[in-house]
Write a structure and sequence with these properties.
Blueprint lengths: L22 E12 L2 E12 L3 E5 L6 H7 L10 E9 L2 E2 L7 H7 E4 L10 H11 L6 H11 L3 H4 L12 H14 L4 E5 L7 H14 L4 E5 L3 H7 L2 E7 L5 E8 H6 L4 H7 L5
Parallel strand pairs: 3-8, 3-9, 6-7, 7-8
Antiparallel strand pairs: 1-2, 1-4, 4-5, 9-10
């Protein structure tokens, strides 16, 4: 069944956010298990439209698990069990009647390590769009997507070249362009710059800021400076004694970094643990 688009009710809001604002996507009582391991518990978040939200926290706290829950990527791992809700336009994407392929078309994912297809630069964009039913002018779509990812000027004369010959930073921007080509509403990014050099990282950050004008972006990052530079909102996760991740604080980024409400947030940001 296709996803039904309708207005959703606001759930747990970041501190300082108007309750009247409609979230792009939100979680309610989200719990995820990998086999018998309880990975994250009772996560309630409401991600704002056309904003960048950073998910931070120590290793093993469930940042990537929460991110992947937003487009059902976790269920590709055997033994994963999810309870609670992830509401997208008011519809729980974990409803058995919702098509996970349609979910992942509307909510794209960019991974930590660039993963271009072993095809030409052109086909990296065209192939994904084609299998998702695109029937328009493919040349125009390829150019538009590469321009949106700030890559067109660098590759316009070598579209037939194998994408694996691009630099790491270019490959990551190509993967972002590939995600854009299928016209998602939301783009999830799992540490998209962690494997890149500082110059390539800066280009990715500038690109994210530009893309947020048209898309909702959720990013996992270990880099506190990166979170403070590029995100509008930040949520901080940590783990309990059983190594289960939980939400400590969610607020506008400046507020969370400058005036955290929870002492554990202050301790983490200041480097006292993690």
């Amino acid at each position: 069944m296709q996803l039904t688009i309708k207005r959703s009710e606001a759930g747990h809001e970041p501190a300082g956010e108007s309750s009247a604002a409609e979230p792009a996507i939100q979680t309610r009582r989200l719990n995820i298990h990998y086999g018998s391991f309880h990975a994250v518990r009772d996560i309630e978040l409401a991600f704002r439209k056309n904003r960048i939200t950073a998910i931070i926290g120590p290793s093993g706290c469930g940042k990537s698990t929460v991110l992947r829950s937003l487009n059902r990527m976790n269920e590709l791992m055997p033994g994963t069990h999810t309870t609670g809700e992830v509401l997208y336009h008011g519809r729980n994407i974990y409803d058995p009647q919702v098509d996970p392929v349609e979910v992942r078309r509307r909510i794209g994912m960019v991974f930590q390590k660039p993963n271009p297809f072993p095809k030409s630069i052109y086909e990296n964009i065209a192939w994904g769009a084609r299998i998702n039913g695109y029937r328009g002018n493919m040349d125009e779509l390829v150019e538009k997507s590469l321009r949106s990812a700030a890559l067109w000027d660098e590759v316009k004369d070598k579209l037939a070249q194998n994408a694996l010959r691009l630099s790491g930073g270019q490959q990551q921007r190509l993967c972002i362009a590939r995600s854009i080509a299928i016209e998602p509403d939301i783009i999830l990014m799992d540490e998209p710059a962690s494997a890149l050099d500082p110059i390539a990282t800066l280009k990715i950050e500038e690109l994210m800021t530009e893309l947020a004008r048209r898309y909702t972006i959720v990013i996992v990052t270990h880099n506190m400076q990166q979170a403070s530079r590029i995100s509008d909102y930040t949520c901080f996760l940590m783990v309990d004694e059983g190594r289960t991740g939980f939400l400590v604080e969610y607020a506008p980024t400046e507020e969370l970094f400058v005036r955290p409400r929870d002492k554990r947030t202050e301790d983490y940001i200041s480097g006292r643990f993690g």
